[in-house]
Design brief:
alpha/beta, Rossmann fold, 6-stranded parallel sheet, Glyco_trans_4-like_N
Length: about 350
Amino acid sequence: MHILNVMLGKKAGGVEQAALDYHRALTGQGHRVTNVTRPGAWVDAKLDALGATRLSLPHVAEWDPLAAFRLRRTMARLAPDAVIAHSNRALGLCLAASRGRWPVLAVTHNYSIRRVVKADGVLCITRDLCTRVIELGVAPGRVFHIPNMVETDVPVNDPAPHRPPVIGTMGRFVEKKGFDLYIDALALMRQRGIAFRAILGGTGELAAQLHHRAIAAGLGDVLAFPGWIEDRDTFYAGLDIFCLPSRHEPFGIVAIEAFAHGVALVSTASEGPREIVDGDNGLLTPLGDAGALAEAMAGLLADDARRRAIAAAGRRSAVEDYSMAAGGRRLTAALETLLSTGGA
């Protein structure tokens, strides 16, 4: 099959990473993929490094008629079997360009899902999102559970702990990611006399607030802020525990990245992690509870055998459930079903 993979975000983030992973997964199954991005997108260099086919679509907004016209000409020239749209902006332009001629599949990367009812098919990253999309009136035959994917051909951590042990997390510095809770949990651990070093990677609007919170909590000498993490392998290789403290997390690609690298996971029970984490491959704590996060992380630091067992189980989950090969097979099956039945 020939797939048009459309992602129009500019900055680095989970949606952008997922679109890149779709390219890898689909090409890994032998499909031809043409990627459509916006000028200057973060993902461009990543696609170029893979030798991917990439087209640039300048646009002003989701309803840009000139961009829709250009995209329609591209579709007519390439005649793809299907178009996959990542984000509402991409979906709006793809639907305007396709006009029903080429099937458009929407990927639900978050809970902003009302517009996906217009798509020919919907690819949902969690079962909860599948349920919600069907509740909007989308026929079940048009809805497919396609969890996010992760590269599993990566260095796997030496299970021996660092001295002192290292705890890390990363993401965009926005309120929903819960990095204030992470800092508070680390402060509670330090108050208990637990030795550790910690990393908080990322950038965003709350950067100054988070730096000030860490200093006020007395963590200035143990918590590093290295900025946005580009070298993921080196980052995970330096960790004993990965913490995902989100208040709201539709999936959590970083969770399965930690799995893949053999790093023990402690996460809040937000939407995505509730489906990913089963108690063997990671630990879940209540939303918004810094004390519970601290207790879970401290418990793993005190019980190295359990930490290693959780890390090993996470690695198995990554390979069996979230690898590019597994995701590529799911995508191929969904596309074949939709194209052969029309989602009836």
